[in-house]
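Thread: "does anyone have the structure for this chain?"

Original post by V.I.:
We have the sequence but no experimental structure in hand. Need at least a predicted one for the grant figures.
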Amino acid sequence: MGTRVVLAMSGGVDSSAAAWLLQQQGHEVIGLFMRSGVHSEAACELPVVGNQPEHRQGCCSASDAADARRVADSLGIPFHALNFQDAFGRIKDYFADEYLSGRTPNPCVMCNNWLKFGRLWEFARQVEATHIASGHYAQLLPTPGSDRPALVRGLDSGKDQSYVLFGIDPELLKHVLFPVGDATKSEIRETAQRAGLRIFDKPDSQEICFVPDNDYAGFLKRHRGEFDTAGEVVDTAGTVLGKHDGYERFTVGQRRGLGIAFGEPRYVVAIEPESHRVVVGKRQELARDWLEADRLNWLVDGAGDTSIQPLRCQAQIRYRHEAAAAAVERTGDDRVRVTFDEPQFGVAPGQAVVFYDGDRVLGGGWIR
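Reply from O.Q.:
Generated one for you, tokens below.
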């Protein structure tokens, strides 16, 4: 027998196909579009690429909300578009604070923690729904002896989004559905087309929803006002190599756009907000044997208890990183040291490190 489910609908292919799949499974579906409160006319302009307007998902709430509403109407499901400007404001503040602290933020994780699986669940309880759902490429599989399912990677390895879901409240997992997680992206597009959904060929978004032009520095200026973060570009020995216009324009591991010509590739190996310095080095200087992480969230009972022996797992340090064999040791009440079997490149403070046992997410934290 189906249940009442509130589905986060973005107007994209994945959440739209998820609505149809949930219906086919017999669920009573309620669609919810989360408005960001962004009303910039410039953000809503759609440049033409070839003969088609370039899609910028999230850049124009009215446009994407209209797509989501049309899908809901075609499927005959109730639809709500609510303004979550306050929650998005919190995410924007976090984004700006991290960059200005010389760290690399991950707003998608925070959006999932605070909004998609926070405020979405609050709304679900208001309408007496027992479950919430989204179009994330991840899976929830039964766990023997527990009513809490295991969060595992999506079937499509190229689209897997389990990394950005590590921060979900573990008790909430029993109330979550991921209808597209056991399919590939091409299969989901075919599903949307078969269901008669006109958005079946809508391009995927590549931008952060509140930075539609991908200009992070410009967003920071608009959000924080004028500030001076210009400084020196130095090598790992402290030798000044040049100047930069603002350290918020760089992230650890970056190679392109350094503004200085070198005889061989150079990478950002550190950002020093106190001195405004950006430190660059050769690839081998980017290698790290270990990292420290805090603000941990464990999805598997007992996984975080490393007081007796280290936790052996695979650790993923960014969204597109291939998880690497590592040992996790607790160094404080809410802090761990992650030691890699082989050095890893591009360990960026502010990014998440997520721990896996095979395809199962054990938990994760934030790189210090």
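V.I.: this helps a lot. Confidence is low (pLDDT under 50) at residues 40-60.
O.Q.: and Residues 107-126 form the longest helix (20 residues).
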